[in-house]
Design a protein that fits this description.
Layout (H helix, E strand, L loop, with lengths): L14 H9 L3 E4 L1 E2 L8 E3 L4 E8 L6 E7 L14 E7 L1 E7 L6 E6 L3 E4 L4 E6 L5 E7 L1 H8 L2 H5 L19 E5 L2 E4 L1 E2 L8 E2 L8 E7 L4 E8 L3 E3 L9 E6 L2 E6 L6 E5 L4 E2 L6 E6 L5 E9 L25 H11 L7 E3 L2
Parallel strand pairs: 1-4, 13-16, 18-25
Antiparallel strand pairs: 2-22, 3-4, 4-5, 5-11, 6-9, 6-11, 7-8, 7-10, 9-14, 12-13, 15-16, 16-17, 17-24, 19-22, 19-24, 20-21, 20-23
Helix pairs in contact: 1-2
Amino acid sequence: MRLPHRDPIRLGPTPYEVFQEKEGIPSVKGFFIEDLMDVEVKPWERMGALGSYLNLGEQQETDAYICELPPGSQTKAQRHLFETLVYMHKGRGATTVWFEESAKQTFEWSAGAIFAIPLNVSYQHFNASNEPVRFLAGTNAPHVINLFHNDDFIFRNPFQFRDRFRPEREFFQENKRLTVRSWESNLVPDVNAFALDDYPMKGKGVRIMRFGLAGTTYGCHIQEFPAGSRSLFHRHGPGAIVTVTQGEGFAMVWREGEKRTRFEIKPGSIYSPGDLMYHGHFNTGPTTLRHFAMRGRSPKYSQDRYRTKLHEMIPLDEEPPEIHPAYLEELKRKGIKGEVQLVEE
């Protein structure tokens, strides 16, 4: 179904674009990054590290950034009213968080860890190794900055969200199951080692876990596709940021009436489908394909019950007819045997 066309209203740069221009670091646009290790990072005065923004998916609901800490260094102390999810891709170190009058709490991490910064707490990241640390962070800064468009309110607000963070030693050790395929945690040590729940409605061998991290409303999940599996094409609203953590394959995206684009994916690849852009995930390797996705709301604050019919999936017999045979041929060429699984996203 084609949606009615509406000319965009352009009245100059948005508050978020004005803010980002002052940050003085590169911004990568588009829908795909082959390897986050190849993204150019430059000195970032506010963070006291090296960085680059990722403004993917042609939207301003969420953004991401890549941050690099040289050996033995640390970021400057930060505090802000937007939510931040972190995936540590390389290196090891620690993060310290605190309320201004309380004792600091520190937790350690290494490559593969995911966690969230509790809202509006002060924090610093430390590189405790002799090699660079590089991590990916997803935020809802564009939405918040465009909503309030006031740097003092966003970055220098003294309000303490004590329902989201308790300055106690045990805070980053808490883990509990909410329900099937939903987990609440403040730190996941290894995205590839975390045990996921079966998701039989999506296909045999498909596994997933949705997370609420440190009280955030910003959602994320880990999903795993077995060898010889692919998703059906599906679409949803803007803002999803997906990074591959294990395995190999490709993603394919397109909007109605537009050309399809294929992206080769591997650990470190990042992609972000645009608003209502059809996309599919294809595992072409001999092992499971696992990704960490930041999108939507966390389990406690989910809005999925309000999804419209525009958030739809294309049945196999209605997708472009050449796609699935080409996928089967690629599996055959690579020697991947077994029953091909269709994953209903």
